[in-house]
C-alpha cells in the first residue's frame, strides 16, 4: 500500500521567518525556544530550516537559546523509563562517561535543540544535566557561569535570560516544557535532594533544589489567561511568545499557592 502524501502545510525557512516576524519576534532580541518539529507540518529542510528561519527572524544581532538537557547522566537507581536491573547500578556508576559540552548529546528534547547544539559557533553551558546551548551575538553572555550545583536557579542561564530581557517562544510545545517556571521554584520554599551523576573524577553526589514540572500545564493555562501572551501559528504549530521575567514572577506567586512543597522537607 503506497504511503499517502503529506497534507502540509508546507513550511520553508522563509515562511517560518516571516510568520515569526508577524507574531512579533524582533531582530536583535534573545529568544529561549521550546519546540516540536513535528507540530509545524511538512518542513522543507527539517530542523536545519527551522534553525535558519529562527535566526533569520532574530537577525545578525539576535540570540537563539535552547535547552540541551542530559537527564541520563544521573543515578540509575532513580531511572524509571525504563528502569535497569539493580545489579547493573554499580557498573553504570563506575563507567558512565562524564559530561562534555562539546560531545554529550541532548536527550528527550527533540531534533531542533540538538541541531542548535551542533551548529557551528554554538556555545553550551557547563551544568552536566541541565545545560543550555546558544547561537548569536550574546551567546557567551547567556551560557557562561552556569554553576554545576545549580540546575535551573540563580546561577543558571535562566536567571541570566531573565536579567537580559529575553522572551520565551513555545513553538509547537506546551507549557509543561517551559523551563523558565523552574527558576521560580528556587525562589519559594522547596525541598533539597541529593543528585548522583558522573563527574570528571568519578561518581559524585551534589545537593540541589528539587525541581518538578508537575502542574506546569495548569500554571501555563492560568498565566495565559491572566497575562499578555502573544498567541498565533507558525505553519501548523501553535505559538506562544512571552517574557521570561513575567513568566517567572507569575510562577512564583502561582506555585506558592497552588503547589506548595514545604511539607516535603
Structure description:
It is a single chain. By secondary structure, the protein is an alpha/beta fold. 31% of the residues lie in helices and 21% in strands. The chain contains nine helices and eleven strands. It has a seven-stranded mixed β-sheet, sandwiched between helices. Strands 1-3 form a two-stranded parallel ribbon. It has a two-stranded antiparallel ribbon with strand order 8-9. Helix 1 crosses helix 2 and helix 2 (46-58) crosses helix 4 (111-117). The protein is globular, with a radius of gyration of 19 Å. The model has no long low-confidence stretch (mean pLDDT 95).
Summarize the structure.
The chain is of the alpha/beta class. It has 9 helices and 11 strands. A hairpin with a 7-residue loop joins strand 5 (123-124) and strand 6 (132-136).
Our measurement of the CA-to-CA distance between the termini, rounded to an integer number of angstroms, reads 58 Å
pLDDT averaged over residues: 95
Radius of gyration: 19 Å
Q: Uncertain regions: pLDDT < 50 for 5+ in a row?
A: none
Class per helix and strand makeup: alpha/beta
Number of DSSP strand runs: 11
As laid out across the biggest beta sheet, the strand order is 5-6-4-2-7-11-10
Helix count?
Answer: 9
Order of helices and strands: EHEEHEHHEEHHEHEEHEEH
Q: Into which percent range does the helicity of residues fall?
A: 25-40%
Q: Indicate the proportion of strand residues.
A: 15-25%
Shape: globular
Largest sheet data: 7 strands, mixed
List keywords for this structure.
single chain; 265 residues; alpha/beta; seven-stranded mixed β-sheet; two-stranded parallel ribbon; 9 helices
Amino acid at each position: 500500500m503506497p504511503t499517502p502524501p503529506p497534507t502540509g502545510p508546507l513550511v520553508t525557512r522563509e515562511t517560518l521567518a516571516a510568520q515569526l516576524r508577524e507574531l512579533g519576534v524582533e531582530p536583535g532580541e534573545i529568544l529561549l525556544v521550546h519546540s516540536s518539529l513535528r507540530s509545524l507540518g511538512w518542513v522543507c529542510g527539517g530542523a536545519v530550516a527551522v534553525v535558519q528561519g529562527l535566526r533569520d527572524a532574530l537577525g545578525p544581532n539576535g540570540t537563539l537559546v535552547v535547552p540541551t538537557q542530559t537527564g541520563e547522566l544521573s543515578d540509575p537507581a532513580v531511572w524509571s523509563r525504563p528502569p535497569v536491573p539493580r545489579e547493573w547500578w554499580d557498573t553504570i556508576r563506575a563507567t558512565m562517561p562524564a559530561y562534555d559540552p562539546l560531545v554529550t548529546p541532548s536527550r528527550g528534547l527533540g531534533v531542533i535543540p540538538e541541531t542548535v547544539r551542533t551548529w557551528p559557533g554554538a556555545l553550551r553551558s557547563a551544568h552536566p544535566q541541565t545545560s543550555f546551548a546558544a547561537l548569536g551575538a550574546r551567546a557567551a553572555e547567556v551560557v557562561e557561569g552556569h554553576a554545576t550545583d545549580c540546575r535551573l536557579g540563580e546561577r543558571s542561564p535562566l536567571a541570566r535570560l531573565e536579567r537580559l530581557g529575553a522572551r520565551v517562544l513555545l513553538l509547537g510545545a506546551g507549557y509543561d516544557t517551559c523551563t523558565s517556571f523552574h527558576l521560580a521554584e528556587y525562589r519559594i520554599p522547596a525541598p533539597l535532594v541529593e543528585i548522583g551523576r558522573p563527574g570528571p573524577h568519578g561518581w559524585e553526589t551534589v545537593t540541589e533544589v528539587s525541581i518538578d514540572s508537575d502542574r506546569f500545564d495548569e500554571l501555563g493555562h492560568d498565566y495565559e489567561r491572566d497575562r499578555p501572551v502573544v498567541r498565533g501559528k507558525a505553519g501548523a504549530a501553535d505559538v506562544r511568545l512571552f517574557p521570561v521575567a513575567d513568566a517567572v514572577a507569575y510562577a512564583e506567586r502561582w506555585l506558592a499557592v497552588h503547589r506548595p512543597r514545604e511539607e516535603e522537607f
